[in-house]
Amino acid sequence: LKADSLLRDTLPNTENFILANETLGKGKYIEVEKALIEGNMSNATAIIATITDSNLMEENKRTVMEMIIKMNDSISLTATDTTLLESIAYTPAIVGGTAVYIARGILAIEVDDESLTSSYRMANDKQKETNKNSLDIYPNPAKDFIFIKCIGSITYEITDVAGKQYKQGDFDLQGNAVVSINIEQLLQGVYIVKATQEDCTKVARIVVIK
User: Fold this and answer.
1) Pairing label, strands 145-151, 136-138
2) Is-cis flag, bond preceding 92, omega within 30?
């Protein structure tokens, strides 16, 4: 693609796409792979040092590339290295990227992707249910404060039944927590309180009394 001048001149924005990917992690890891194929370990290491990973797939790619470089330098993998590779190998590829297959190759293991993806989804659904059950808004009715019980960081919004916003904000938290929101300035009436943590949202219809 990079060398095909006809394609570069024909497709709109193709050259911009190529240049952008050359500067992003994905594009640079392609250069690392080329260096590894050529046996140029020092060049591969130098390229990796310039990359700032922006997601889990790129982090995994860095890990497996570094393991390949170690093995090519006749350095034995440590128990920690093996554990890292196993954590990648047993991740669904849709989440962990192509590094998942490389890790499996290094460890010489076979993984049933269908059952692994199913288990991952079940665990993810279970976590969502846990988050949902942990999120609570009270009391109702309320007078001066509303409390939100949660796990981790949340965002919240208070509106009237017509959708007019009165308060909104966020709390950067760790673990189980209860946050308080001052509503002394709200007039008596019915309000909608929406709280969101990760991929779980709870909406409560709260009566404010004075």
Assistant:
1) antiparallel
2) no
CA trace torsion 11, 12, 17, 20 (10° rounding): 140
Going through the chain in order, the beta strands assigned E by DSSP cover 136-138, 145-151, 154-160, 165-171, 176-182, 189-197, 200-208
Q: What is the dihedral of CA 114, 120, 125, 128, to 10 degrees?
A: -160
Burial, 133: exposed, middle or buried (Cβ in 10 Å; 0-12, 13-18, 19+)?
exposed
How far is 198 from 186, CA to CA, in rounded Å? 28
Nearest Cα to 57, choosing from 89, 97, 21? 97
- Pairing, β 154-160 against β 189-197: antiparallel
pLDDT of residue 7: 41
Could you read off the pLDDT of 56-89 as tens digits, one per residue? 888 888 888 888 888 888 888 888 888 888 888 8
Low-confidence ranges of the chain (pLDDT < 50): 1-15, 17-24
CB 36 within 8 A of CB 3: no
Do the Cβ atoms of 116 and 92 come closer than 8 Å? yes
Residue 171: C-alpha distances to residues 11, 20, 107, 183, 194 (Å): 46, 35, 42, 16, 14
Structure letter (DSSP) for residue 59: H
| Nearest Cα residue to 196 out of 161, 162, 168 | 168
